[in-house]
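User: I'm new to structure prediction. If I give you an amino acid sequence, what do you actually give back? Let's try with this one:
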Amino acid sequence: MGFQPPGQSGERKYYSVLINAARAQVEPMAEPRNPHHVLGVGAQIEAVNGPVFAAYFAGNRERFDVYPDYRQALYVLVDGAVYGVQSEKIETDIQRGFSTRKFTLSRGNRPQRSVEYPWPWYREPFTSGAPGTSRSDDFLRELSAMVREFRGVT
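Assistant: Good question. You get back a string of structure tokens that encode the predicted 3D arrangement of the chain. For your 154 residues, that looks like this:
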């Protein structure tokens, strides 16, 4: 499902993610008839070097659960690469600059993917919220909070 920042209304977007050998292909799609098929949240980020798709999603979802079960398995997708948060010991970091932010996804202490994107200093420099609540307009900060929350859960 597409990420909608607070205060934005309109039609929700949905994406089909096909994964083969830890590489993902992302395509827009119509809303699924069965909400059980929605496993996570994603967004197109307008980065300094061009658009990047990022997402977090669960491995599966119980039939009658309202939300996907991120505790059992949380996966993140950044720029076409898919990582298992718990199994690959994924960590994230966001560095704030005056006019940009830099999101870095690491496996242990080895950086894997970096995304630098425009983010002016006056837009929510120090706010934080519980993961999954989308209190921020910044999807990569939301993704980082999800990784922090569910990294050590077994």
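You can read the tokens as a compact description of the fold. Here is one thing that stands out. The beta strands are 14-20, 23-29, 40-47, 50-58, 74-78, 81-84, 90-96, 100-107, 110-118.
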